[in-house]
């Protein structure tokens, strides 16, 4: 009997021959004859997403979902991925339908293309894949959910790299290609370095425009298309080589536009993102991420303060020289100001390139995790690491390998059955078949395992898991190749491709086996040995197999606490309850971590109660100092000081990079008081650690002022004292009122809002703190006068009964209603309402400088100021989303995150882009 190869990589796989037809798919997660969906408990819900002012932006009733799925996952899937017109009979209403549509389509294509040894193997594949998706162990990227089973030849890839040459025809074709990609919900990146510089001549005479000029047109198209009907905003990456003669203009172009936006905000234009006619809508380069491509030679020139040559694109002649260190300073000053440009390390990228005989790697997708040949595409998928946590708290390497095998096979089947936007991308996708398998929930897994994110043990564990994932992915690719043959470009690239596999395998020996899980390291070493052996024998089916994407929307679909390679953001979250109300809960990973660290049930209970009340673990009873680092998060807690240093993020990226075909999408968040020198240190250290790319984002560097959406019950609960939310802490029997003395100092302030004049008088205690407020806005007896008098009285009573002024300022600042407009006050040039002005003025007058700057948003430097002119105070703002009956977290940080274009909620940083924790929308490409 002809031997058949197993997906599980058994001994049979090592003896397989190219002539054998089809893979044997052995059951691992499922039982023959039992539908995986029938093994789960199901229920019907109403999926609803509320936007500004509580207005429903999406609602679908009678949605069938697994009981284990959260309300947020329900809302995201129903609003983003269900196909058919809302309210029509053809509209999908069940997760069974959604998963069935995708799985059956992939299974049918696998049968058609001969991937399975028999019909039983095809049925097993469908069953096993369904298990992964229904159990939230894995998810494909969004285009698969959008399009597979809906269109005959669906677009399945989220990431594209487009070539552009030095001709008008090529430049205009790039604009068309990008526009079509944005329309179908994908992102694209391009390196514009082949375009001749503005310092070179056109062939017909005259000076060339240069790439930065054309970037304005590309940016305008991206801004117009934005979401393209697929619930996703346009995502774009623009890259320029460090030796391009226009590199200095490129480095500064986005920062200069940022200064223009500041000036417009000062002149009265709305500072919010996604605002038609607002400040940021009126300047260029807001729809793309920018990166400079640097080589090892350039980085060494920076360290040595050497000259750096800028070379012509037409003939390679040197057109000028700059000091490399001065150019790096311009890069980091611009990144300090606006977050761009990032840096991509060209030498490192191409040193790990599997197909250099075809061409070099010039560019990446918008989030910088997919890096491959020009005119290529990558379909992504991510595994949920928390679902591979074993009963004893370890990592289940066997089930993880099985999930890798199934996912790689599914992604491989998609390649030849997908549609691509250009003929060139289609050819390269067929010829090189790059895939992007990654994972999510690393931060949650490390915390649950009792490992600090920023620790040698945390990095060793992450490296071992990543090595296992990519090693098994390449081993599976080689098994598939044993039946189908390798990718078409393998023969021309055989030696460099296999050399890269051996390089990955050798890197496993650099993992500290004393700190990493021994069984995972051993499994990773065995997978890489098999991948190299089978690769030499069969070749590999896929030129690339892995990346670490930001996993925005699909992370919500899988109910991940953390996305991609990110650590946890905060220790608490808020959950709306069915029928109203809100529950504040400590993240599920915290008790798992405490249990793993050996705390008793009583100790765990007291620590959780402390975190619930204080939103920090610092100072919690029973917590041992050596364990505090386990609970460090990306953002500093409201009542604590601990946070993960930005170098901790970079070191984690350096630990896992040697085990990825592609790169890592992760913005390194830096505090507002970070300097341009700190950013340079981060870039240099990233290069030394072998990263392929890095982008930083200094908190508060954008001067956007997101629209204040109506605050709901969850937000109110987040801002009152803990005992008011839970009713569990003992209330004092009587609150004491602190009255002001009969004679007290006071200050009167005259103001004007949009031409409406008023006066406010603040009475003060002996210590100078405010204790009463009077506001006069109109004639006595008028409605406005009565309302403002009553409002001022309530504020006075609140102050006298001990409500902190900071709480009142946080609550009422940035509320929006008429009258609003210019004020004439240079510290508060525009007020969104009377209460907005009052409390921003109070914060500036009476709160410490840090708090006052936070509330009033006057902590940004004036246009044109250099980073050395001042140091910004660390500013924070609680960002809360509003999913109907959903699960959410409070995030402290990202003070300038834009509002979601779909529902208006404030987004949070996600890799190089943003995600909305309310409706699941992302501004990225994965």
From TrEMBL:
Superkingdom of this protein's organism: Bacteria
Sequence ranges of Basic and acidic residues compositional bias: 710-731
Domain TSCPD, chain residue ranges per copy: 741-843
Polar residues bias (residue ranges): 875-892
Cofactor: adenosylcob(III)alamin
Function: Catalyzes the reduction of ribonucleotides to deoxyribonucleotides. May function to provide a pool of deoxyribonucleotide precursors for DNA repair during oxygen limitation and/or for immediate growth after restoration of oxygen.
Protein's name according to its UniProt entry: Vitamin B12-dependent ribonucleotide reductase
Organism: Anaeromyxobacter paludicola
């Amino acid at each position: 009997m002809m031997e058949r190869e197993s997906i599980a990589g058994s001994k049979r796989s090592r003896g397989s021959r190219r002539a054998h037809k089809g893979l044997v798919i052995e059951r691992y997660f499922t039982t023959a004859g039992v539908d995986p969906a029938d093994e789960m408990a199901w229920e019907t819900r109403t999926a609803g997403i509320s936007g500004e002012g509580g207005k429903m932006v999406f609602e679908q009733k009678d949605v069938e979902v697994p009981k284990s799925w959260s309300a947020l996952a329900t809302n995201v899937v129903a609003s983003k991925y269900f196909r058919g017109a809302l309210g029509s009979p053809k509209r999908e209403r069940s997760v069974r339908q959604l998963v069935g549509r995708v799985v059956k389509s992939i299974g049918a294509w696998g049968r058609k293309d001969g991937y399975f040894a028999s019909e039983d193997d095809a049925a097993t594949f469908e069953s096993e894949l369904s298990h992964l998706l229904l159990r939230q162990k894995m998810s494909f990227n969004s285009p698969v959910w959008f399009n597979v089973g809906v269109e005959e030849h669906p677009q399945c890839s989220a990431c594209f790299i487009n070539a552009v040459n030095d001709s008008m025809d090529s430049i205009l074709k790039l604009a068309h290609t990008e526009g079509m990609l944005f329309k179908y919900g994908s992102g694209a990146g391009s390196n514009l370095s082949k375009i001749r510089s503005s310092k070179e001549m056109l062939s017909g005479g005259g000076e060339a425009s240069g790439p930065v000029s054309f970037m304005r047109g590309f940016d305008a198209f991206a801004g117009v298309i934005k979401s393209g009907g697929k619930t996703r905003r346009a995502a774009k990456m623009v890259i320029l080589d460090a030796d391009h003669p226009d590199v200095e203009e490129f480095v500064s172009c986005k920062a200069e536009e940022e200064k223009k936006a500041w000036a417009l905000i000062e002149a009265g234009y709305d500072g919010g993102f996604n605002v038609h006619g607002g400040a940021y809508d009126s300047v260029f380069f807001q729809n793309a991420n920018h990166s400079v491509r640097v080589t090892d030679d350039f980085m060494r020139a920076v360290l040595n303060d050497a000259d750096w040559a800028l070379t012509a694109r037409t003939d390679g002649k040197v057109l000028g020289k700059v000091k490399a260190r001065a150019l790096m300073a311009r890069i980091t000053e611009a990144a300090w100001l606006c977050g761009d440009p990032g840096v991509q390390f060209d030498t490192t990228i191409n040193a790990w390139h599997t197909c250099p005989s075809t061409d070099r790697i010039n560019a990446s997708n918008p989030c910088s995790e997919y890096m491959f040949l020009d005119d290529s595409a990558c379909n992504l998928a991510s595994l949920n690491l928390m679902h591979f946590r074993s009963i004893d708290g370890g990592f289940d390497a066997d089930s993880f390998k099985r999930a890798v095998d199934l996912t790689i096979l599914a992604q491989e089947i998609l390649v030849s059955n997908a549609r691509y936007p250009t003929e060139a991308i289609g050819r390269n996708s067929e010829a090189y078949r790059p895939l992007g398998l990654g994972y999510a929930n690393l931060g949650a897994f490390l915390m649950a395992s009792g490992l600090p994110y920023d620790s040698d043990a945390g990095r060793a564990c992450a490296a071992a898991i990543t090595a296992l994932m990519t090693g098994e992915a390449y081993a599976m690719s080689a098994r598939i190749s044993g039946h189908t043959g390798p990718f078409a470009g393998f023969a021309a690239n055989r030696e460099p491709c296999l050399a890269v596999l051996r390089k990955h395998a050798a890197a496993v020996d650099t993992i500290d086996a004393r700190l990493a899980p021994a069984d995972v390291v051993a499994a990773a070493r065995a997978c890489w040995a098999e991948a190299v052996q089978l690769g030499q024998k069969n070749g590999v089916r896929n030129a690339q197999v892995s990346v670490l994407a930001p996993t925005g929307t699909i992370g919500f679909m899988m109910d991940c606490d953390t996305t991609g390679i990110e650590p946890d953001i905060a220790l608490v979250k808020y959950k709306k309850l069915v029928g109203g109300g809100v529950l504040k809960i400590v993240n599920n990973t915290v008790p798992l971590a405490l249990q793993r660290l050996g705390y008793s049930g009583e100790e765990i209970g007291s620590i959780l109660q402390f975190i619930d009340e204080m939103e920090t673990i610092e100072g919690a009873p029973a917590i041992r100092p050596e364990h505090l680092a386990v609970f460090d998060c990306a953002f500093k807690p409201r009542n604590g000081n601990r946070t993960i240093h930005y170098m901790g993020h970079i070191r984690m990226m350096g630990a896992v990079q040697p085990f990825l075909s592609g790169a890592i999408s992760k913005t390194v968040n830096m505090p507002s008081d970070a300097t341009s020198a700190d950013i340079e240190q981060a870039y240099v250290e990233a290069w030394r650690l072998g990263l392929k790319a890095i982008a930083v984002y200094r908190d508060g560097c954008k001067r956007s002022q997101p629209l204040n959406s109506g605050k709901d019950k969850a937000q109110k609960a987040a801002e009152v004292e803990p005992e008011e939310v839970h009713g569990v802490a003992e209330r004092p029997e009587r609150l004491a009122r602190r009255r002001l003395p009969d004679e007290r100092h006071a200050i009167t302030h005259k103001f004007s809002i949009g031409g409406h004049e008023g006066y406010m008088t603040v009475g003060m205690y002996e210590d100078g703190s405010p204790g009463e407020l009077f506001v006069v806005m109109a004639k006595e007896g008028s409605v406005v006068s009565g309302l403002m008098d009553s409002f001022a009285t309530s504020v006075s009573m609140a102050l006298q009964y001990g409500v902190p002024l900071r709480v009142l300022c946080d609550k009422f600042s940035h509320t929006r209603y008429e009258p609003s407009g210019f004020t004439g006050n240079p510290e508060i040039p525009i007020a969104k309402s009377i209460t907005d002005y009052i409390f921003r003025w109070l914060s500036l007058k009476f709160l410490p400088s840090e708090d006052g700057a936070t509330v009033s948003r006057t902590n940004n430097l004036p246009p044109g100021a250099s980073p050395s002119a001042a140091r910004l105070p660390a500013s924070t703002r609680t960002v809360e989303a509003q999913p109907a009956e959903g699960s959410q977290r409070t995030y402290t940080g990202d003070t300038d995150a834009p509002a979601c274009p779909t529902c208006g909620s404030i987004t949070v940083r996600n890799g190089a882009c943003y995600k909305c924790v309310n409706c699941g929308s992302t501004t990225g490409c994965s």
